[in-house]
Every structure is written in structure tokens, then in C-alpha cells.
Amino acid sequence: MKIAVLVKQVPDPNAIRYDRRLGDLVPGTPQATNEYDLYAVEAALRLKEQVGEAEVVVASVGTARETLNRCLAMGADRAVAIEGPSLPGDSLVTATVLAAWLRREAPDLIWAGQETSDAGTGNVGPQVAALLDIPLVSNVVGWEYQDGILTLEREIEDGHQFQQVRPPALLCALSALDEPRLPTLRGIMEARRKPSERLAPADLGLSDDDLAPVVSWGGLFVEEEAAAGVVLQDVDPDQAVEQLIAFLQERRLI
Ligand SMILES: Cc1cc2nc3c(=O)[nH]c(=O)nc-3n(C[C@H](O)[C@H](O)[C@H](O)COP(=O)(O)OP(=O)(O)OC[C@H]3O[C@@H](n4cnc5c(N)ncnc54)[C@H](O)[C@@H]3O)c2cc1C
Predict the structure, then answer these.
(1) CA 62, 65, 69, 70: dihedral to nearest 10 degrees?
(2) Tens of pLDDT along 142-157?
(3) Exposed, middle or buried, 119 (CB in 10 Å: 0-12/13-18/19+)?
(4) Is there an atom of ligand 1 within 6 Å of 86 CB?
(5) Does residue 254 lie within any of the structural domains?
(6) Which domain holds residue 97?
(7) Where residue 41 falls among pLDDT bands split at 50, 70, 90?
(8) Tell me, what CATH number does 135's domain have?
(9) Does ligand 1 come within 6 angstroms of the Cβ of 187?
(10) pLDDT, position 192
């Protein structure tokens, strides 16, 4: 069985600093692996451990060396980086590139994250599935594999739903799946010897036209800081409650 996992390197959500002058993140903002993608890698590794004969291949569009190394150190067998001057484009460009690579690899199963913590469109998984014309199961929080059939637990607004699918299929992971393992020292050493491929879109038969974005990005804005608010000090508790209620009512918050 071949399992592909789509992973994206994103600005570290715990270290993001915004530069108002640039209208963008401070250059050199630390990078991290998109959280949901680590859950997807963990699911792929557990499936490999269950079935025995399997290969886990991780792929990323854009610069993602640390992310791919981390996945290899977790236990993935092979990494593929797809880079090019016109990447990233919009999410459909990313999906087009990934779909071209996946057509070449023909995996039995594809795991992706539900969405990223930076652009966060949640488009790429569904777009890849549509381009490959394979089933998509989103919001996956649990799975079981038996006799060639995957039983998937999905989180939905009011509860959980179970679906069955026979691979090939694309599954989008949420963080209620098994906790991603930390790379061990041995895993980090082994990662250095694992195959790592670097491709350009042209290697996948893609032309500049295929990489032309349809959606263009505007500037990045952050909300103005909230007003200072009102502090009630040295007030009798009953009065404080009345004042608080009046304050909230004035603003039509209750
Ligand atoms: C410098 C820069 C310029 C950009 N300009 C534009 C622009 O002009 N217009 C525009 O629309 N967008 C633009 N983007 C956004 C960029 O195209 C998206 O970040 C990208 O397409 C993925 O979309 P997403 O982050 O919303 O992924 P989502 O759809 O939220 O991701 C879902 C899942 O898909 C997989 N995935 C997503 N991205 C990748 C990837 N790169 N490699 C492998 N797997 C992936 C992961 O498993 C992820 O969890 C720009 C981004 C950058 C960094």
C-alpha cells in the first residue's frame, strides 16, 4: 500500500509577529509544520504499522525543508518537495501541482490536513480530490481499516458521523486523531539517509499557464486593538453587577 501525505510549512502560530509598515509578517518569522498535517502523518504511519507492507510518502509545494525532514524523522519513508518561482499561486495552483504529482505516484490513499493555520482556505484537499476524481472525506477524527475498507469518523456540527470508503480516497485530518509522535533521535538520524526528491512543476508536465493564479491576494490586515474598556474599582458588588449589566445593555450585548 502506498500512502501519500500532503504537508505544508506555515508561519509558527506561536511566534507570529506582524509588521504594520510592511503589511505582512516580520521577515524571518519562524516556520512550523501545519498542525493538522502532523495528525495526517501520524494517521498514515499508524496505518502503515497496521498493514505492514506500506510506504508513506510526504509531499509539499513550496519551501518546506524543515517540515519534510520532520515527517521523515517521524517515520515517513520518502519526501518530495515541489518548488518553482511561480509557487505558491492560489489554492487551485497548489492543488493542480499536487494532483499532477499524485497522478504520477498513484497512491492508494491520500491524507491531507483539513485546513492550514495561515491561508486557511480548506480548499486544497477538496480541489485535489476533484482533480483526481476520487472520493473525499473531510473532518476526519477517527479511522479503522479492515478488509480493504476504511471506516471514517467525521466531526459534524452537532455530533459525529461514520462513513465507509474503499481507497483510493482523500481524507482531511482534524486534531482529534491520534497525537502526532515526536521524532526520536534515531528517527532524526535515519531521516538523513531517506530518499528526498526535489521537483519543479515542469518535471510534472505543468506549464506556466497551469500555474497562473485565478484568485489574487490583497494586503494582510490585523484588527485594531480593542478599546481600553471600563474598570470597576472599589464599588459595592451589587452596584458593580448593575453597572456591568447597564454597560452590556448599552452596547446591545445582552
Ligand atoms: C507568498 C505567498 C503568496 C500567495 N499569494 C496568493 C495569491 O495571490 N492568491 C491566493 O489565493 N493565495 C495566495 N497565497 C496562498 C497560497 O496559495 C495558499 O496558502 C495555498 O494555496 C494553500 O492554501 P491554504 O493554505 O488555504 O491550504 P488549505 O486548503 O487550508 O490546506 C488544506 C490542506 O491541504 C494541504 N496543503 C495545503 N497547501 C499545501 C502545500 N503547499 N503543499 C502540500 N500540501 C498542502 C495540507 O494537507 C493542508 O492541511 C499565497 C501564499 C504565499 C505564501
Answers:
(1) -70
(2) 999 999 999 999 999 9
(3) middle
(4) no
(5) no
(6) 2-211
(7) very high
(8) 3.40.50.620
(9) no
(10) 96
CB-ligand 1 contact for 90 (6 Å cutoff): yes
Residue 136 has which C-alpha cell? 473525499
In a domain, 234, yes or no: no
Terminal-residue alpha carbon distance, the chain: 56
Q: Cβ distance 9 to 33 under 8 Å?
A: yes
Residue 216 included in any domain: no
Q: Is residue 238 part of a domain?
A: no
Count of the separate structural domains present in the chain: 1
Q: 208-253: per-residue pLDDT in tens? A: 999 999 998 877 777 777 777 778 888 898 999 998 999 889 888 8
In this structure, the chain runs to a length of 254
Query: Which range has the top average pLDDT, 18-27, 85-94, 189-198?
Result: 189-198
Query: CA angle 163-164-170, nearest 5°?
Result: 90
* Residue 123 CB less than 6 A away from ligand 1: yes
- Say which residue, 101 or 254, is predicted with more confidence: 101
How far is 74 from 20, CA to CA, in rounded Å? 37
Distances (CA, A) of 129 to 93, 120, 138, 210: 14, 17, 11, 17
Mean pLDDT of 181-205: 97
Q: How many C-beta neighbours within 10 Å does residue 207 have?
A: 9
Does 137 have pLDDT greater than 80? yes
Q: Take residue 204 and report the three cell numbers written for it.
A: 510534472
User: How far does the centroid of ligand 1 lie from the alpha carbon of residue 119, in Å?
Assistant: 6
